[in-house]
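To assess whether the prediction recovers the assembly geometry, we first specified each molecular entity separately, as shown.
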Amino acid sequence: MIDKFKAKFVEESMDNVHDLEEALFLLEKDMNNKELIERIFRAMHSLKGGGAMFGFNHLSEFTHHLETIFDWVRGNKLAVSTDLISLTFSAIDHINHLLKTGDLTNDEEIADQKAFIQRVQAFLTLTDSPAQKAGMTSVEASGAEAAIATKTYLISFIPQPELLQNGTNPLYLMDDIHALGQAVSIAYTHKVPSLDLIDNTSNYCIWQILVNTAESVNEIKDVFIFVEDECELHVDQIAETNIIGKPEINVLIEKALQHNLLLTPDDFKSGDWNKVQTKEPEEKKKVVVKEHKISSIRVTSHKIDELVTLVSELVTIQAQLSLYAENHDDPVIGALTENIQKLSRQLRENAFDISLIPLQSELMRFQRLVRDLSKEQNKDIDFVIEGGDLELDKNIIENLTDPLLHILRNSIDHGIELPEERIAKGKSPKGTILFKAFHSGANVIVEISDDGKGMDTEYIRQKAISKGIIEADAVLNEKEILELLFVSGFSTRDTVSDVSGRGVGMDVVRRKIANIRGEVTIESQVGKGTLISIRLPLTLSIIDGLLVKVADNQYVIPISSIDKIYALDPAQIKQSFNNVVIIDKEQVPFIDLRKVFNEPQHQTDIVQMVMVKSEDKKSGVIVDNVVGEYQTVVKPLGRYLKKQEIISGASIMGDGTISMVIDTSRLLQSRKNIKVTG
Amino acid sequence: MLAEIKKQFYETTVKELEDINIKLSHEEVPVEDHPVLTEQIFTLTHQISGTGPMLGFDGASKLSRKLERTFYDIRAGQRNLTPQLIWQTKRAIEVLIQTFVEENSIQRQ
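The predicted structure of the complete assembly is given in tokenized form:
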């Protein structure tokens, strides 16, 4: 059980750390922002308190010192500086480590923590003692001034029925008001029900008190401070002098009790005491209990995965049901199936919606990387984020983080120049890396661009020749040269740095992105910068597919990649040269799936060509015929079939047969390879 | 295990509340003691508000949240710890102890 609490604490603390990191980034840009300082202090404070409670003693001790620092900052005893922010960033890394490992057991680590704490404490000792805040004395002075004369106030205390339920005794409050000066209480009991209906835990009374006191309004309100959520409270000054006991006042009280009508400050205006003043309306305090509604709940990610899996199973079963209804020609079952189909589609969309998380959640890591690396390399970089609130399937985000980190590292290490170099080139000394995410049809595009030195294609070409990746006489256009960067073992960096340049970069990036059915492209201009664009699907496990037939087998082509469908005469294909047909007076390259899957040639009168697009390439895919649209649950192929290129998964049909899901981008890629080598 | 955590939480919290109550019962709490006292009340009530609901002390947490809020303002210099406030805090802490005791006995039943 304790583990469960601990896990929950760690989970919540991770959110806290995330919030802390975010606030720190913002504070770096606006070092005097009180709200951010408060946010950081609160986060440290929660980590300290929770840490001690759940046995993270080292965490608690460590955050205690940081909390002190930010307490000093809050109290204007210490100014925010870049050094302090850097120290806090390092501290965040240590907090993350402590949250993951729990208390330190290794002597070396304990010594490290001690050294770190000393660095933190050094901040406190190096700082001069602060000047006292002037505001404090003026507050006290104003309180003293108010104590000079006595005034009469009307207090309306209208408690809610549940007042008694948390142990409050309203009569004690009356006593406390009476202790402030001369007072008279009026109890309205007209709402008290008959004895048989009374709930002895509920309050039915309302009180008004006239008090003549030298104390301030705030002092009076302080009496009710711990019941303000359970009551409506008004404190109005009704006279500059003591009017309690005057006959007119007694009449007013009598009348109010008779009619069960609460007294108002206006009732006292008509009296002969001239100095009656009512408080400004904005000073009236009306405390209403705020309703607390739960707007979100926390669910573990495996539960979401389970939900998505169950929905996928449901979609498969629904396909079986559809097939059964079709075969049995039963209108009742047919209608029911249609409804189930609609529902399962909605359920599928809902389940996927739940599994979407904002990209923002990972952006903090990227910001951190840019900040730390640029400082390390003495580069000045502005990291601009656009579209951080865009949502993606959590599995995609998980797989996307590493490639993105790698691309960013490349941008900082190879792309952005040193400030002096930039000035010499007539650029601003501060480089910019733009991270942009946006929707494009059924895909999400993530672009990372920099205004750095760009890529020299001739240099890349020479490097590729020297590494034996291409022949010395190979003729490649600019785009094809940039594609070489994705070849395994290619690195333009002459020396291996800590950052990048190990030659295992971009090919791994492409492979990882391809694993989540994404595509990556590079555009670059020497002196201007580089743009890396990643196209991603919205979801992974269920896609809208087009079911097609090739010989005796069915295949699924993702609808998101389809442009148009044409009917063709098989003769056109036979007569075509270099796998290109003329359609609408345009030359269209095609891939015949019968050839790809080693099936015998077409014997039918007509074939269909599905136009698919990938990146900026378009190609026709020849199939026997199109069966129709199909909600496809994509299952992985397993490790034995992992090596094959153009199939991204398999799907179980309603009749239990299996259809392969075609990876259109790899299919088009394979065509290009055939062309190049052929 | 949970019962053990609850027991430990209940015992240490009630003891600390009683300690505070003794300090508040003095004729006059010296002004120089206010910062330490404020910190102590804030930290304790913050802890009760956070951990109380997890261990079933809902009523106590509700009241401690109010104290936490008030002492948060005092710490931030937005409110003064007046004799009235000290008096009301004493009252609230007595209620808090009583609520703790009641909720603990209900849980044990």
